[in-house]
Amino acid sequence: MFRKLLVANRGEIALRVVRGARDLGIPTVAVYSDVDADLPHVRLADEAYCLGPAPAAESYLNIERLLDVAEQSGADAVHPGYGFLSENADFVRACAAAGLTFVGPPAEAMDQMGDKIASRRSMQAAGVPIVPGTVDPVTSLPEAAAAADEAGYPVIVKASAGGGGKGIRVVQSPDELPRAISNAQEEAGAAFGDGAVFVEKLLRGARHIEVQVIADADGNVVTLGERECSLQRRRQKLIEEAPSAAVGPALRARLEEAAATAVRACGVRNAGTVEFLVYGENQDQVAFLEVNARLQVEHPVTELVRGVDLVRDQLRVAAGLPLGYTGADRPIQGWAMECRITAEDPYAGFLPAIGPIHAYCEPTGPGVRVDGMLHPGMEVSLHYDSLLAKLVTWGEDRDQCIRRMRRALREFSVAGVHTTIPFHLAMLDDPNFLRGAIHIDYVEEEFQMPAPDAEASERLAALAAAAYFQTAGERDPQHTNGALGGWAGQARTLRRPSGTGWRR
Predict the structure, then answer these.
(1) Contact 113/105 with Cβ under 8 angstroms?
(2) Domains in the chain with CATH codes
């Protein structure tokens, strides 16, 4: 195994990796920006180093600084988490040149998977079905128009190097195509340094289904079933579950076979996810979307229903050890669901929210898991993704899982910024969601967000008041006259580490 692991990320995923490494007895090195020094992963790691100012380009995307930290700390492996440099082939090559093991796929596989056009070509050659459209970048408007006419409107213009919903434009008619091409190219060029785009058919009513895979150095590929990821907004996932209510044994076998073929065609090692669209009148047609060569945000739902630890498996595979199990050894057990709790206001078009967390109380109880990073006093920054926590529940079946999620959401309180908790509660009462009749455009085209819940607003106001009195009590203990009770234990803050690096 490794001597020491550098965790090149922040927030909840950094905390998840630190805990996974600790379970294997691997010392960890955390990194943080100026505004992240109080995050829990910094405290729980064995060492922590400041990368620099808050902007990601000066901290979490600063390859040279990360390699400096690895050298200073004596780390011999790097786990990238998700986002930031997790799918950056140049970072993988830089790690190799520095003698560091990268916990993820090789750079060559990453090059191919990061290029959606190259991936489509590879899948087509391997016999994996793809969404109708181009397998080469469109280089002119007439070429794009011809491709759109052949596929049939509506179509999607996609950036080859895109991700996170960037560089994507839906085109309903020919007159919208010129602007869509121009905007997608411009956005992709600014975000990814590559303005290449392609055109594919927009499959109305399709579901987004992905398959978790993990491949070891000996070429063994294990598939761990599907995740339902159709509830999205602007191509960003909101709720995920495993298994999918729309996938039976026959379709699951087809999806897993296609995923294994895709992974072998791309040369993936370690954990990855193969994304598909499932569509058609009978929801039985499958089309490849892309391969994500990293740990996904929604990996906990697979862990809960399959009884695996994907971070542990990543570390073992990266160290050259066998997985020690097959997919058949890990049958589906129950049902799991994840709600992404983000700092956004669902009553104002999901407007991002920033500011301090005044008070925080997360749910517990049977079948509830929270992967998060929140604590009273932390600041939600405009520099990073709005994800605050992942609330995950498990049940013996989908009904019990939903009931537990509903309970957990009602117990989950965050005071200081708007969150998507009201949206999730509303969705869990939506009749179409409850019967599994959803698709990738459901949230934006059919779902209606109800008016604010007055009772929930009052509860949030009470939390804010508690936070105020807690702060006042710290200044003057007699001010609150002991009225806070148990809140004194909740409203604690973490102290900032001093210096550029520390050990314990």
Answers:
(1) yes
(2) 5-103 (3.40.50.20), 132-201 (3.30.1490.20), 207-454 (3.30.470.20)
